[in-house]
C-alpha cells in the first residue's frame, strides 16, 4: 500500500475537500505504538461498513501473513466488515477531515499502532464524513 506519514496532505486519489492521512503505514517506516481506547476501535469498525474510495484490488497487511481479505466481526446484521479495499473518512468538529485506510483497524488490533491524538479525538467527537463530501 502507498505510504504517507501521519497528518500529511492526502494525495492518493482526487478529492473534493482537503484531507489529512492517518495510518497509511508500510514496513519501511516506523510507526507509533501504544494503547487505543476500545470506543475508537468500535467507531472505526462502524465506519468500515461505509468505506470511501473503494478500490478493485485488495491491500494486504505488510506486517503479517494474515489471510486476505482481512475481515472483522461487525454487528449481527452485517456479519463482517472487510478491510484493505477502501478508506475511512472522519470529519472532526473543527472541520478537519482525515482519511485512513480501512486496514487501520487491523494495524491497531494486531500491530499495536497508535494513531495521533487529534485523530483519536476526531473519531470520538467527530462524525463520519458524508459520502459526497470527501
Ligand atoms: Zn497484519
First CA to last CA: what distance?
A: 20 Å
Helix content: 10-25%
Mean pLDDT, to the nearest integer, reads: 90
- Give the structural class: alpha+beta
State the shape.
Answer: globular
What ligand species are in this complex? zinc ion
SS field, number of helical segments? 3
Count of distinct strands: 6
Strand content: 15-25%
| Biggest beta-sheet profile | 4 strands, mixed
In total, the number of domains comes to 1
- The protein's oligomeric status is single chain
Structural Rg: 14 Å
* Unreliable residue stretches: none
Q: What order do the helices and strands follow?
A: EHEEEEHHE
Strand order of the largest sheet: 1-5-4-6
InterPro entries: DUF7919 (IPR057679)
Organism: Microlunatus phosphovorus (strain ATCC 700054 / DSM 10555 / JCM 9379 / NBRC 101784 / NCIMB 13414 / VKM Ac-1990 / NM-1)
Domain DUF7919: 2-124
Pfam families: DUF7919 (PF25535)
Amino acid at each position: 500500500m502507498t505510504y504517507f506519514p501521519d497528518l500529511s496532505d492526502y494525495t492518493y486519489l482526487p478529492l473534493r475537500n482537503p484531507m489529512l492521512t492517518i495510518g497509511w503505514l508500510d514496513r519501511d517506516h516506523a510507526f507509533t505504538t501504544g494503547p487505543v481506547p476500545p470506543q475508537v476501535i468500535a467507531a472505526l469498525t462502524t465506519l468500515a461498513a461505509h468505506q470511501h474510495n473503494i478500490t478493485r484490488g485488495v491491500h494486504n497487511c505488510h506486517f503479517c501473513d494474515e489471510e486476505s481479505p482481512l475481515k472483522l466481526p461487525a454487528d449481527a446484521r452485517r456479519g463482517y466488515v472487510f478491510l484493505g479495499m477502501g478508506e475511512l473518512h472522519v470529519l472532526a468538529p473543527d472541520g478537519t477531515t482525515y482519511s485512513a485506510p480501512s486496514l487501520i483497524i487491523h494495524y491497531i488490533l494486531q500491530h499495536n499502532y497508535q494513531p495521533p491524538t487529534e485523530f483519536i479525538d476526531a473519531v470520538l467527537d467527530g462524525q463520519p464524513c458524508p459520502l459526497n463530501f470527501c
